[in-house]
Amino acid sequence: MKKHSLSLVILSCIFLLFSCGEKPTDESETIPKLKQENKTPIQKAEKQSDESIKLGVAGAHSGDLASYGLPTVNAARLVVNKINQNGGVLGKQVELLVEDDVCKPEVAGNTATKLISDGVDVVLGHICSGATKSAMGIYKDAGIIAMSPSATNPDLTLSGEYPNFLRTIAHDAVQAKLQVKFATEVLKVKKIVILHDKGDYGKGQAELAQKYFTAAGIEVALFEGVTPGAVDYSAIVMKVRRIKPELVVWGGYHPEASKIVTLMRKKKMDTLFMGSDGIKDDTFIKVAGKYAEGVFATGPMDVSGNELAIAAKKEHQNVYGTDPGAFFDAAYAATLALLNAIEKAGDTDYDAVMKALKSEYVETPLGKISFDKNGDATGIGFSVYRIQDGAFVEQK
Questions:
Q1: What is the reported pTM?
Q2: Which CATH number is associated with domain 173-301+384-394?
Q3: Identical fold at 53-169+303-380 and 173-301+384-394?
Q4: Which residues does residue 357 pair with via DSSP β-bridges, in sequence order?
Q5: I want to staple 125 with a disulfide (CB 3.0 to 4.6 A). Which of 17, 58, 303, 314 is the partner?
């Protein structure tokens, strides 16, 4: 039996979470190397002890978007507690280093620097695409792998700029194509308006939607950004009202979307409204209240029937007394994937861990996943949901 395989088998039998080494059929054998490009990277802190594996958890843990980040912290804690109770990874306990970036790019760089200085081995995060982009170059220069459960900007994996980045959610090009397919084939719309929050995630997603809607022959009567955090969006709502589109497509997060939808409905506008995974969170429903009814949103596929997803949800309910929030399943999967890869690699070495991530499958609440040559998880995707009776209902 190979080194470290026994402990992995024990974990597999106890948790039914880690895979037993099955190889993907379409893997790239080439693992991208980090390029320093004459930069002076932040030095990873010397460990005072070699007795722990340090897993960083970075994201919005406070502020308006905390409902997106806190479920990731909870997921990491549940997985790590379970693994530690059964011997840890490579015979070592896993230590969580949790840092808040408030989903702001100007904060995320400092968050990444702090984690590196504290000696982090791998990072779960960040949550928002803009914050992720801000941090990822810093991790790259330090030789740190980071995996996000929620950052969907395509460039994070497709540009080649961040070979150290992976994610357990599909990217926005996949999401935008699904929105167009549903809007044209199911909703039968001919004229739309696209609004966005000017951010890396929101604007990027909106631009992709504009591209694919236009290619499908749909009239995009207005493409406009709004100022995040504004108190009143009456001006843009009145502009939309004058245009009379059949559908408003939103690129961005729930705080602005809830205000816009509420204003539209108060002004007796019955225009259809569709957002992406940035609004597929119960917080949107709580804030918009009755005005959220009928809103469409794309988001990660429903995995509520997956046995590991059912078990993970039950764990969360037992420990925290509530149902898990946004991106919980993807975060749980990412934690499993990172720690499984370290176990498989027999070390926390960058190249060894990256090779394991891209050459092994792992059983997760999302199903059996691995990662392609770009760092995108295989076997996952998006679904369309509609808010009905105060809950997101998947549209078949």
A1: 0.85
A2: 3.40.50.2300
A3: yes
A4: none
A5: 58
Q: What is the pLDDT of residues 276-310, one digit of tens each?
A: 999 999 999 999 999 999 999 999 999 999 999 99
pLDDT value at 11 more than 90: no
Cβ(142)–Cβ(43) under 8 Å?
A: yes
Show the tokens assigned to 121: 């081995």
pLDDT in tens, 255-268: 999 999 999 999 99
pLDDT score of 47: 45
- CATH match of 53-169+303-380 with 3.10.20.310: no
Tell me what the mean pLDDT of segment 117-128 comes to: 98
Write down the mean pLDDT value for the chain. 90
What per-residue confidence (pLDDT) applies to 396? 85
